[in-house]
C-alpha cells in the first residue's frame, strides 16, 4: 500500500459577544457588520474530522455523526471544498515551477476525498455545530493539502461554509472583520487575544428545552436585512462602536464592560429579530427568566458579575469569572431543577469540581443574598433547563495524530 494522505483535526465552538446578523452577499457569505466571539474549550465541545485523499476513491463522500450525507446537495460544502482544492492546485503548480520533479508533486487536488466528522456533544443538546464543523473541515483540508496560507487566510474558506465558522479558526477572542471588498478578500477572522490572556473567564451553557423548530439563522437574517429599520442603525453606528469598546474591555480584562456590552448586544440582536417582518423570536420563557435572574444576581452582588447571550435559539450562554461560578450554578440548579429521569452528573457534569459531589448542585445556596434571590425567583418546572455545560475559553483547531483517525485502513468510517 502506498503512502496514506490523510489529516485528522478537531475544532472548537464559538459564542459571539457582538453578533453577526445580516449578509451583504449571500453567495460569498459577506456580513453587513463585524462581529466578535469567544472560542470555547474543545474539552467540552468540539468537532473531530478526518479527511483522506486517494486516487482510488471514485467520488467525494462525507459522513456526519455516522450518517452519510450527499455533498453535492450542499452548495456551502461544495464551495468550501472547491476553494481549498484550488489553493492546493496553485501549490502544486508552484512546486512544479520551482523545479520539483513532476513525479514528486503529489496531485492531491485531482483526487477525491472521504470526509468523516463527529461532534463530541450530543446533537440533542440543541447546540449549533456548523461553526465547529466547517472550521474542522477547512483545518483538515489545510493540513491534508499542506496549504501555505495563514489561519486568517484559511478563515475565508471556512466563511464560505458558514459565516460564524471563520471565527472558530482561532482560539481565545476572535474578531470577524466585515471587510469592504466585493470578492470577500478582506472578510476574515483575526485573533484579538489568545486563550491564556484571560484564564478566569468561564462560560455556562444552559440548554433550554424547545419544541418549536427555530427559523434558521440564514433565512432569519435575510428577512431582517430586507425588512427591519432598526437593523440599519445597528449596522451603521452601534456595532462599530461596540467592536472598539469590546476590544478595549478584553485587552483590560474588564469584566463589567465586557459583560454589559455582551448583554446589550444580545438584547439588540433579539430586538432586531422582533423588528423583522414577520417577526422572529428565538428566546422562550426559560430564556427570559434567565435574563431576569442574571440582572437580579448582578443587583445582589452590587456589580456586574455575570452576562447572558443568546443566539438563534432559546439556549443561554452565561459568561462569568471563575470565582462567581459556584453561586451561579447553585442558583440555576435551584431555580431550574433537573428532570428526575436525568442523572445528576449528566445534568451538570461539574468538570471544574465546583461541588464535592454532583448531587450537591442545587441542594444548597451558600451565599445568603443568592439564597434570597432564589427564593424570590422560585422554582421553574423540572427540565426547563435540560442540562448545564460548564466550560472555559479554549484554543483553536488542533491537528491530531493518525491514531485519532475516524477512517479505517481502506478509508471508510471506523
Ligand atoms: C446568531 O453563521 O449560522 O449565531 O452564515 O448563514 O451560516 P450562516 O449563519 P450562521 O449565523 C450565526 C448567527 C448567530 C450570531 C453569531 O454567531 O455571530
Write the layout of secondary structure elements.
Blueprint: E1 5-12, E2 14-18, E3 23-25, E4 30-31, E5 35-39, E6 46-54, E7 61-64, E8 67-69, H1 75-97, E9 112-119, H2 130-144, H3 151-159, E10 173-177, E11 188-193, E12 201-208, H4 217-227, H5 230-251, H6 255-274, H7 285-301, E13 306-309, E14 316-321, H8 325-335, H9 344-347, H10 368-377, E15 385-392, E16 398-400
Parallel strand pairs: 7-9
Antiparallel strand pairs: 1-6, 1-16, 2-5, 3-4, 5-10, 6-9, 7-8, 10-11, 12-14, 12-15, 13-14
The chain binds ligand DP6.
Family: Belongs to the diphosphomevalonate decarboxylase family.
GO molecular function, one term: diphosphomevalonate decarboxylase activity
Catalytic activity: (R)-5-diphosphomevalonate + ATP = isopentenyl diphosphate + ADP + phosphate + CO2
